[in-house]
Amino acid sequence: MVSFRVSLLSLVLISGWGCATATTSNTARTSTEQLLITNAVDQSLDKIDFRPFRGHAVFLNDKYADCVDKSYVIASVRHRILQSGARLVDSADQSEITVELRTGAVGTASSNSFIGVPEIVLPGVVTLPEVRFAERKKQSGTAKIGLVAFETGTGIALGTGGQALAQSEDNNWFVVGAGPFRSGNVKGEISSSTTGQAAVKYTQIPKIITFAAPDATGTQLASEPLQTIDPVSLEKQE
Questions:
Q1: Are β-strands 97-117 and 120-121 bridged in parallel, bridged antiparallel, or unpaired?
Q2: CA pair distance 8, 3, nearest whole angstrom
Q3: Which helix (H) or strand (E) holds 131?
Q4: DSSP letter string, 51-84
Q5: What is the set of domains in the chain, with CATH numbers?
Q6: Lowest-confidence range among 23-37, 55-69, 218-232?
Q7: Nearest-CA neighbor of 41 among 183, 187, 147?
Q8: Rounded distance, CA 165 to CA 30, Å?
């Protein structure tokens, strides 16, 4: 009888022993793919000198840009033009210079390679499995961006214009099953953007949502600091 009770208790304890799993999901496009493309776009624009536009009104014609991440490409070109000291305008009629943007290639590609022995099928039913001592999974991003500039009023070209081509890489190495050991532009960009001076926070959104009451005139000047409500003091009042 005692043995039966011990067995029953053991069964209850075993059946009560459980486990849990966490559900995860990924976006349709991975962050690595997006970083590969935007990194290649940034590298392409690094090769273009926008300084001759300084002090002039510039209209960016982007109707010839047709690619993935088109918004990033256009916004990045606008940023570079503004950074040069030029003034962006909304229409060609307001401009002194028109810049035409075109995209030749913006996308990614991937390849896998390994050092080892491929699968060998021998006559009969014997198959020797594949053995990989070292493996590299490579994904690259390419951006080919073309620009031409001309005087809006006369249509005369300002310089020869041209095309800027750049490529970014993300390499993942596996050695005898261990890895990945990562290298490439994406790793470098993440490291340089999340360490050192680049990791310093200059602004931070509050973790507690608070509001301020308007002043006697019904408005609160933007230059005046908002009156925050302390949740702790509210609890004491209650």
A1: unpaired
A2: 9
A3: strand 131-151
A4: GGGTTSEEEEEEEE--STTHHHHHHHHHHHHHHT
A5: 27-199 (3.40.50)
A6: 218-232
A7: 147
A8: 23
The pLDDT of residue 206 is 86
Please tell me whether residue 202 adopts helix, strand or coil conformation: coil
Q: How far apart are the first and last CA of the chain?
A: 61
Q: How many residues does the chain have?
A: 238
Q: Are 179 and 173 in contact (CB under 8 A)?
A: yes
Q: How far apart are CA 78 and CA 71, in angstroms?
A: 11
Q: How far apart are CA 159 and CA 77, in angstroms?
A: 18
Q: Which residue has the tokens 């496009």?
A: 29
pLDDT > 90: what percent of the chain? 61
- Hey, what's the torsion of the CAs at 46, 51, 57, 60, to 10 degrees? -20
